[in-house]
Design a protein that fits this description.
Helix content: 55-70%
Strand content: 5-15%
Shape: elongated
Structural class: alpha+beta
């Protein structure tokens, strides 16, 4: 008995097609067809099925990254097999065009889906072989009076069927174990990505996590960003110690969580600096909310606990409303400029960034902001 596995073959244009004479199964997940074509390409070019190689071929068959697809098509047109240096170079290009953690997580999910599909196919084949063997066993009883030569042939077929069932069962179990490992890998990668986007002290998103949320499609329209900073935080560390400073930051993070709406994204973007993404909120509505946050912080005691350890702080904040076609960096620069204005006007206040003038000359350049920061740090208590 022979089991035949049919793989989807790659086309020259980076898409996939079923072999001649076959049609795609209705309702079949297209990603699985692409995964099959990917495995076929790896085998055809004698490449190791590493996540990196898998990702390159999957991107090619899915038609992603037009520049990459064109390079692969040109190389295939020469008739030579692709080498590992080719794959390494293309993988570096793919990773340069999308976040590495997301790319690896996507590859892990694709590998897991492919393995699970293979397990399902093998389980189906094993069940069919078992039914076939059961039918032959029943046939053996009905042919008890048959000539010895026929009985011997039938027993040989039965033995081979039992061996096939055992081999298929063993292979299915091994593939199921690999599928579980792939699922565990994806979970570990997702956890690593969460860790990479989370500030360990406060549990809030870090700067990278905040920038991802701000740059995500559909972040909100209108959209506001608040950038805030703890006033005189250096004095807290100098007088109360770093443990008290950490407790202040953790307490402020709790205040931000309680103040934020469910769709808002509060984050610690560095040191004593925080930011909040306010989707679907215009500046006119956001400004009184940020003022209320400032008042709440000023009225709250923060500290490491115990008598004499409570600390009172104030914050300065800059608020900017995003404009259509305005990039995330420009929006953050305007919010930063409003924050520094609040600092230099006396702290413990909120300032709204004006809309950018023609030519975008309203917000200070980053060098100007760094100069302002150094001058601020030179004053008693930042």
């Amino acid at each position: 008995m022979t089991l035949v596995t049919t793989w989807v073959m790659p086309m020259r244009d980076g898409q996939t097609t079923m072999p001649a004479g076959r049609t795609p199964q209705p309702g079949r997940d297209p990603a699985l067809a692409i995964a099959h074509a990917t495995m076929e390409s790896l085998l055809a070019h004698q490449l190791s099925p590493t996540p990196e190689n898998y990702h390159v071929w999957f991107s090619f068959h899915a038609g992603e990254h037009p520049g990459l697809c064109a390079q692969i098509r040109d190389t295939l047109a020469t008739g030579r097999n692709l080498s590992q240096p080719d794959m390494d170079a293309w993988y570096a290009r793919v990773c340069a065009e999308e976040p590495h953690a997301a790319a690896v997580g996507r590859v892990a999910a694709q590998v897991e889906a492919s393995l699970q599909e293979a397990v399902r196919l093998l389980e189906t084949a094993r069940a069919s072989a078992h039914r076939y063997g059961h039918s032959l066993a029943g046939l053996s009883g009905t042919l008890a009076g048959s000539p010895p030569s026929l009985t011997a042939q039938l027993r040989r077929v039965l033995d081979e069927t039992r061996e096939l069932c055992q081999t298929t069962r063993s292979l299915a179990e091994r593939l199921a174990a690999r599928a579980r490992e792939a699922e565990e890998l994806r979970s570990a990668l997702n956890e690593a990505r969460r860790d990479a986007l989370t500030d360990p002290l406060t549990g809030l998103p870090n700067r990278r996590g905040f920038e991802d949320a701000l740059s995500a499609p559909g972040a909100g329209d209108p959209l506001c960003v608040v950038v805030l900073d703890v006033d005189h935080f250096k004095t807290v560390n100098d007088r109360q110690g770093h443990a008290a400073g950490d407790a202040v930051l953790q307490g402020l993070a709790r205040t931000l969580r309680e103040w934020s709406r469910p769709d808002d994204t509060p984050a610690r973007t560095g040191g004593e600096e925080f930011a909040v993404l306010l989707p679907r909120l215009a500046a006119a509505a956001a400004l009184p909310l940020v003022e209320r946050l400032r008042e709440t912080v000023a009225a709250t005691s923060y500290g490491a606990g115990g008598r004499g350890n409570d600390v009172r702080i104030t914050i300065s904040a800059g608020l900017a409303e995003g404009l259509r076609a305005e990039g995330a960096e420009a929006l953050m620069a305007r919010a930063d400029a409003a924050l520094y204005r609040a600092k230099h006007e006396g702290r413990n206040r909120v300032r709204l960034a004006p809309a950018p003038r023609a030519g975008g000359a309203d917000a200070p350049h980053r060098w100007d902001q760094e100069t302002m920061r150094k001058r601020d740090m030179a004053s008693p208590g930042a």
